[in-house]
Amino acid sequence: MASASLQFFAFILALFGVFGDIAATLLPHWKINADVGSNIITAITQMQGLWMDCTWYSTGMFSCTLKYSILSLPVYIQAARTTMVLSCILSAFGICITTVGMKCTRLGGDTDSKNNACFAGGICFILAGLFGLVPTCWYTREIISNFLDQTIPESSKHEPGGAVYTGFISAGFLLIAGVIFCSSCFKRQQGAWIYPPKQHHFPSTEQESNAGYSLKDYV
């Protein structure tokens, strides 16, 4: 049975995972292309994300353009949008559910109810980690394949940005937190199966009354 401190550690990991998941979803740093011209004044950095494309100039100017058209986007970006949003929603649900089921809180009722809540929250964290890991892997694969493609000019090639690394780390935090919560509930149930509670059998009141008085005295 996992201790309350281990569950609290898993909860802190899940919090970092949720914040990182939201940041990775919103930031435009999924892929970066640095185009440095002959003059340093013309140096620009182009960043592309799931929702917007941004350009940063060496003069300090910063401009962003939203991606309004969904159908014109590549398939991996559409899939990344959907799965990252699902990951954020599931991780938020996991935070709410595990808050009720943790041992260090007074919510959730009896021990069995808190166990079930912890297990459900752990499943939410595991699903959120998987939903966050799949788009980051797919997005990274597309960046690497385009970078190694000889037919694509150098000016159109990109490198993974900070949002991709943030997505990987956040997915790892959520997976670890989910495994800890689920394993704590599983070990508790397994202990209950191996060592079942002792049942005390008490004689009925009717038997006690019959044993106390002999019927021979009334014959």
Automatic annotation (TrEMBL):
Its main location: other. It is a multi-pass membrane protein. Keywords: Cell junction, Cell membrane, Membrane, Signal, Tight junction, Transmembrane, Transmembrane helix. The chain crosses the membrane at residues 84-105, 117-141, 161-182. Residues 1-20 form the signal peptide. GO terms for molecular function: structural molecule activity. One of its GO terms (cellular component) is plasma membrane. It is found in: Cell junction, Tight junction; Cell membrane. It comes from the Eukaryota. Pfam families: PMP22_Claudin (PF00822). Claudins function as major constituents of the tight junction complexes that regulate the permeability of epithelia. Belongs to the claudin family. This is Claudin. The lineage of its organism: Eukaryota, Metazoa, Chordata, Craniata, Vertebrata.
